[in-house]
Amino acid sequence: MADLAELGEAELIAQLSFFAPANQFNDDAALLGLDQKLQRVISTDALVEGVHFSNATTPGFSVGWRAAAANLSDLAAMGCLEVEGITVALAAPGHTSMPWIKEVYQGLSALLKNHGGLLLGGDCSQAPVVMLAITAIGKVAGDRLIRRGDGKAGDHLVISGPHGLSALGLKLLQDPNDPSLLQLDESIRHKAIKAHQLPEPRFDAVAALHRSKPADMPWRVAGTDSSDGLRRSLELIGNACGHQPILAEPFELVEGCCLNSGLDGGEDFQLVLALESPWAKKFVEQLPGAQWIGWLGENPGPPCWANTKKPLLPGNSFEHFNRT
Fold it and tell me: For residue 26, is pLDDT > 80?
């Protein structure tokens, strides 16, 4: 039997989906139908020491903030405008200091307060490393969902903000004297570090979707968040809807970010959306920092460049079960 390193995360999820209702694992979060007008959205994610954070780059406050932000981003990616609450399962070694734990929960609470959510409860356990496993709960109107599979040929691809900033921030934290980064403007350095340590779930982008929708157009939005990188988000949308994501060039990048970090850096937590052209144009006008990046083609296929029709070159997007 294959092990996890051979399977990879995508195939692991595909195989585990046999134990759940059909299509339950197809989106950023699960839906529980309360009635035809309201859906409850449930998301679970984990932040593990040594995998998602380290003391060298992430203080306790940021650990808590980022753990909550990762889950709230999944709620936004399903169309929620806010969070109702979260539960937290904390596992940690016995030598973990209580002041540090309090910092973590201060970060959790600060982000929740910004978006109207409550800390509902959780669990505690001993473990070799620190882990925060969070379940976030939100709600969305049944006719205002965002689903990966709802894209159609000709839809325009838009993003709620820049990609590569979080990866740049991590690089600055790991090696602030990197010669290639010394010429960066101080404002860019600050913005990148903040993007890595204190990311924001893009509920504001969902609100912009509501404001920008043309009155004569039905609600149909395909999308996901870019927690694992822009390339992966495009693959998820393209695979779910059966239409090839086609990227326009040149691809707009933030100063200091290369194309590779823009596509595969990950943890930017932006929304990647497919919308009908008039709606996409109004959305970009409504939301500062949003941009148009391409469209969905007629046929299935991996993300490609518009001018060559060649698939994007292989990248180094994050994979949980790589052998080390």
Answer: no
